[in-house]
Design goal:
The chain is an alpha/beta fold. The protein has one domain (1-88). The protein has 2 helices and 3 strands; from the N terminus they run E-H-E-H-E. The chain has a 3-stranded parallel β-sheet with strand order 1-2-3. Strand 1, helix 1 and strand 2 form a beta-alpha-beta unit. The longest helix has 8 residues, at 19-26.
Length: 88
């Protein structure tokens, strides 16, 4: 796997059930994986216990600048990897 490539998994409140992480492992992905959670997640310490330094905590207050696929602010909004609204 290239050293300049990684996967970001956005998740909230389910440190013991990050399906995408397990799916990547089962598919043989060997690259770097970062678990991205928001600062309102009550299970932050459990994520850190399981995934260690690969957990990034993003303050929700700054997420207003991220293009999402909806027009209303919500935790469940989807953002594309290129920084453009999903579906464009």
């Amino acid at each position: 796997m290239r050293e300049d490539f990684c996967a970001f998994i956005l998740t909230h409140g389910r440190p013991n059930n990050v399906v995408t992480y397990r799916t990547l492992q089962a598919a043989g992905y060997t690259g770097k994986v970062f678990i991205v959670i928001d600062d309102e997640d009550e299970t932050t310490e459990e994520y850190k216990r399981i995934y260690g330094d690969d957990v990034w905590c993003s303050p929700r207050t700054r997420s207003g600048g991220i293009p999402t696929s909806t027009t209303t602010p919500q935790i469940g909004a989807v953002s594309s990897g290129r920084g453009t609204p999903a579906g464009t």
